[in-house]
Design goal:
GO cellular component, one term: endoplasmic reticulum membrane
Radius of gyration: 22 Å
Order of helices and strands: HHHHHHH
Largest sheet: none
Subcellular location: Membrane
GO molecular function, one term: transmembrane transporter activity
InterPro entries: MFS_dom (IPR020846), MFS_trans_sf (IPR036259)
Main location: membrane
Length: about 170
């Protein structure tokens, strides 16, 4: 719902990824409390899986709007599969490193390595986030200066400006 109102995914994805950085840092040293572990695992699930699902789940929509791929379902499904497969392969390969890091440095360093990977993801999105955030702020500022007549037109798309001027 927030995503639909903003019209851009990168601010939401960035907020979730930055939240995951803090959540991973907390979870790395949380201790043996089962309740805190359940709570933090839930937060981590949302903040890590959320951006992944937003990116992979909506890539077909974005690709469908590209003129080169418009109407070519095979090309769109191939690109979507490659993106999803790359993420899955990265997760599978990462599982080989978890025991190596854990045995060499301890569990805390497993989570610190996740923090590093998520930070790299944040760095990859900084430019897109900056562009989208500027657009969102400009739209918000523009929305604040709209006259009541323009708001009526936006709220009632069936009304034309001619209809409103005859009623005045």
């Amino acid at each position: 719902m927030i995503l639909d109102r903003l019209g851009h995914r990168s601010p939401i994805i960035m907020a979730l990824l930055v939240s995951s950085l803090f959540s991973l840092f907390i979870y790395a040293d949380i201790g043996d409390s089962k309740i805190l572990n359940v709570l933090m695992m839930t937060v981590l699930g949302v903040t890590i899986s959320g951006p992944y699902n937003l990116i992979v789940g909506t890539i077909a929509v974005d690709l469908g709007s590209q003129p080169a791929l418009a109407g070519n379902e095979k090309a769109m499904s191939t690109v979507t599969g490659l993106i999803d497969g790359t993420g899955s392969a990265g997760s599978a390969i990462g599982q080989f490193f978890v025991p190596i890091i854990q045995n060499s440095f301890g569990w805390s360093w497993v989570f610190y390595s996740f923090i590093i990977m998520n930070f790299l993801s944040v760095l990859c999105l900084v430019k897109r986030f900056y562009i989208d955030s500027r657009i969102v702020v400009q739209n918000y500022r523009r929305r604040g200066t709209i006259s009541m007549r323009q708001r009526l037109l936006e709220d009632e798309p069936l009304l034309s400006s001619a209809t409103i001027s005859h009623q005045e």
